[in-house]
Every structure is written in C-alpha cells, then in structure tokens.
Write a structure and sequence with these properties.
Residues 1-21 form the signal peptide. With 176 residues, the protein is α+β, with helices and mostly antiparallel strands. The protein has helices at 2-24, 32-49, 138-145, 148-154, 161-175, and strands at residues 67-78, 90-100, 111-119, 126-129.
Amino acid sequence: MIARRHGWVALVLALSAGAVALLNTNGTGTTPAALDEQLTADMRTTLERSGPEQHQHAGHGAQQEGEVICGVRVYGHEPRGAGALPEVRTVYGFHLCGVAEPGRPWDVAVKLAGPVILDMTTDPPGIQVVEATADVRFIDRLHEMFPPEYAEVASREALSEAEAAELRRRYDEAAF
C-alpha cells in the first residue's frame, strides 16, 4: 500500500514537472530565456555586420576603417507571445558600439549608442535608431517609436555591467 502511494506521488510530481516545462517553453521547445539569448546574439551580429558606414545616427557619420564591436541589451520583442525566433517581427533594445581601429584605445574610439529597433522581417534585419529631430526631443521620439513598457526601461537602463565589460574586452581584442 505504501509503495503504491509513493508511485502515485511520483507520477503526480512527474506530470507536474512536465506541465511546468511545457508552460515555460510556450509549446515551442524554446524557453523565454533561450529566446532572449537568441535575440541578443542576433541583435549584436546584425549591428556588427552593418559596418561603420551604416551607423549614421545622431548626426555622426562613422567613416573610419575598423571592425564594429557592439554590446546590446534586448528590452523586448513583438509579438510579445512569440515563442521562437522565426515568430519575432520586431526587437527593441539598446546598443553601444565602438569602431575598433587598429591601435585606437576605447576612450577615443568612435562610438554609437542608443535605443534601437530591429525589423526581423527583412534579410538582413532593418535597423532603426531613436533620434531627436529639430522639432522632436529625444525622449518624445523614444515614446513615439517604442511600446510604453520598453520606452520606460529604455529611458533609464542601458547595458548591464557584464555586457559592458564583455564589450570592452572584445573591443580591446579587436583594436590591439
């Protein structure tokens, strides 16, 4: 009788664990954390492949020769319920990129930074940075372009300390 009771308890625990795992993967086999990691990697790769000549925002034209090295932070994506990378149409985040010219230290490198939107429906993904205009302040433009919950985060948070440290390490490796 006790063995039978333990068997039922084990069965209930196993079914509960399976249900939790299924809920945490959105039924797609991809966990939200894994999707965030994929989106972070894709955002970094997209920005680094774009080249310095394509980073023409905030009134700066980065025409220098060098490798673009970026740190990124993903704030969120649309549709919000997407469970796998192919379902994601738009990614909202922050980028800080440096153009790693040979022998040029980080402190004097050309840098490009700010909130960014990736259009994942195109190949390569489209890049749109948030910029002020002559008539629209930066914070107002941010709220025009980002959904409210992501705009709120973007107005107060940039890279994590770990991401910033990794960006500097990768930059120094590329420049020296």
